[in-house]
Amino acid sequence: MTSTTPVPPLATGDGRHDGFPPVREDDAFLEQAVSEAELPALLAALALVTGDTALLEDGVKPPLPPMDSTIAPQGGMSAAAQQRARELAVGALKAFRDGGSVPAPDPGPELLGAVMRFVTKDAGDEYLPLLRHELGLAGDLGAPTWHKDDTAPATPFSVAVIGAGISGLAAAHRLQQAGVDHVVFDKNPEVGGTWWENVYPGCRLDTPNFAYSYSFAQKPDWPDQFSRRQQIEDYLRDVATDFGLRPHIRFDTEVLAASWDEAEHLWTLTTRTGDEPPATSRFHAVVSAVGQLNLPNIPDIPGRDTFAGRWFHSSRWDPAVDVTGLRVAVVGTGASAYQIVPSVVGAVAGLTVFQRNAPWMLPTPGYHRETPPGMHWLLRHVPHYGRCYRFWQFWLASEGRLPFVEADPEWTEEGSTSARNAELRRQLLGHLRAQVADRPDLLAKMTPTYPPGAKRMTRDNGVWAAALKQPHVDLVTEAVTSIVPEGIVTADGVLHEVDLVVYATGFRASDYLEPMTVTGRDGVDLHESWDGDARAHMGVTVPGFPNLFLLMGPNTGVVVNGSSLFMAECATEYVLECLGELLRRRAQSLEPTREATDAFCAWVDEGNLRRAWGVADVHTWYRNRHGRASQVWPYSLVEFHRRTRRPDLSAFTVRGGGEETS
Ligand code: NAP
Questions:
Q1: Residue environment code for 470-486, b if the CB has 16+ CB neighbours within 10 A, otherwise e
Q2: Domain boundaries, position 347
Q3: Mutation test of ligand 1: which of 301, 336, 618 has the most ligand atoms closer than 8 Å to its C-beta?
Q4: Which pLDDT belongs to residue 18?
Q5: Residue 625 in domain
Q6: Rounded to the nearest whole angstrom, what is the distance from the C-alpha of residue 269 to the centroid of ligand 1?
Q7: Which of 255, 329, 365, 656 has its CA 20 to 30 A from that of 471?
């Protein structure tokens, strides 16, 4: 089955965007398409399209078994339930076609509620605001609740956004919606941030991509389940163009410093564009959207610079280098290495992979799978299906494996942190053993020694083990001790001769916001005050740094649930509401109190200590040199969503505008 339908534009409205061509295909075509569909989302969409809740009958409600190592296909529906669901879906599609493909009017709250309950197995009421936001059928619920022209038309106000990646573009869009003057600075010549920078072979998402896209810019035609980097970069370019964000972006412009002027209540930004001398500009507020993982961590191995061949960090991959016939070393076995190794193994003459800790691999058989053609057709022809599918993916991952990574203080079994974590461990080990049953040497090396969930797991469809089994590949677990012109020397004294070294050794996540200099009230330097332990109220605002807002800030990364894009969108919406408060009050500045920030961090720390990554004795980028997990969020997505709807002003000091409250 092929589809020649033109691709509809990004859906910018309520999900019923124009561009759904009428259904004209015959019954056999519809049956084939439905046979390739994700059924719970399809029934939900068809209920919205037809207005008929009878499609959501109890027998076809996805039972959603607990998410241990794998997600059950079709939400765990039995074969009989799937068969019945297909009959219902085909019947509804035929009726839709025969009625002229006219969708029912916008769904009211009752129908929306029925759909959400069907997909989520009766999620509690506390989820409803988040679910409405994500489903996006009741309008753009993340839009600012105010507009500058109504709130403070005569008040001069401008915002600098630093970074035009995932979170910077979200911020630019929301500022534009609110009618706020803004400039986006990016050191790169294009939008995309991490998706522009990481061009290593095999780079792709590890979050299902219908969920890894903006709630306000839905795309119905993702060709893969987990997009390749080029598709995400293209999507972000399209968002920048379609939403009119580009005129505000200053490309090739690095922000070197930001300094708060207390007398003027303004931030001064020092920027450098290309080779031009540094320039300054002033803004009332600064939104940092510099990302969390873009400062390469290149280990300081003795002799590193004496190496006679080429070397680079995974995120600085040189596309001009042809690895064909080369002897290649990959240092590290994290998420980046996991994608690079299988992608280059077929071309290289030799591949030596240096492993310090084996990664836990999460079974994901469809990791490289394309969206089946029938599903693709349905996404383009059935209004709401894309949104319902996104919602379905979102829901499956929203609390994800959080229950399986709990740390039980009473638990003593080695290699796990609780009974459910031990269960996850058993399942993941079974998955690993099945893949390397014929290679006990590899099984020993590939068996992780730390609890699952202590680090983000890699998405596994078998390509990693298959690559490591090849005769020209060597998985080395001896520690790297030095580098010489010919290659890498390990603790056992062996010299591994190579032509190219790739450092897939991760990022200096704890050096957050470096190398920028950020100076707040009373000349305080942000990095000095953090001293390697980044802290922010709600991950967004910092005491002593008025009108500074951080996206993908401290303690807002996710490990086993949801996607960072969701967290960035929530934080962006929160920032906009903070700015709205400033303008409504004609205030000059807003910053969190130290007490509120300390209380927030203590609460987050407490949560992290109840997660595998908080207690496991293993090196991760989540924890900084003080041992504190300063990068990740330990709680549910619904908790972050709830807390970021409106600023709790009792946590802030608001100055100026005739009002000073704290
Ligand atoms: P990473 O997960 O931090 O992995 C770094 C690897 O390098 C680890 O295996 C680490 O070993 C090893 N390493 C570090 N220093 C070393 C040294 N001195 N000697 C030997 N080995 C050393 O980094 P990453 O793979 O770049 O991924 C970072 C994060 O980026 C991920 O957690 C993920 O959130 C994100 N990411 C996402 C995707 C995606 O698919 N969307 C792709 C890539 C990255 P230890 O385990 O012993 O520390």
A1: eeebebbbeebeebeee
A2: 304-360+423-503
A3: 336
A4: 45
A5: yes
A6: 32
A7: 365
Pairing of strands 266-273, 279-283: antiparallel
| Residue 74: strand, helix, or coil | helix
Would you state the pLDDT for residue 658? 56
Contact 570, 641 (CB under 8 A): yes
CA separation for the pair 497, 327 (Å, rounded): 8
The residue whose CA has the least distance to atom 12 of ligand 1 is: 332
Task: State the Cα–Cα distance between residues 215 and 208, nearest whole angstrom.
Answer: 14
Whether residue 457 is found in the same domain as residue 317: yes
Last residue of a domain, one of 470, 503, 536: 503
Q: Nearest C-alpha to atom 21 of ligand 1 is from which residue?
A: 332
Domain count, the chain: 3
CA of 274 to the centre of ligand 1 (A): 31
DSSP string, 112-147: HHHHHHHHHTS--GGGHHHHHHHH-TTS-TTS-S--
Q: Is residue 58 part of a domain?
A: yes
Ligand 1 atom at minimal distance to the Cα of residue 293: 30
Check if the beta carbon of residue 55 is closer than 8 Å to that of residue 46.
yes
pLDDT for residue 398 = 82
Residue 208 domain-assigned (yes or no): no
pLDDT for 206: 92
Q: How far is the CA of 597 from the centre of ligand 1 (A)?
A: 30
Residue 225 resides in a domain: no
For the chain, which ranges sit under pLDDT 70? 1-19, 658-662
Final residue of a domain: which of 471, 503, 535? 503
Ligand 1 atom 17: the closest Cα is on which residue? Answer: 299
CA of 6 to the centre of ligand 1 (A): 39
Same domain? For 353 and 384 the reply is no
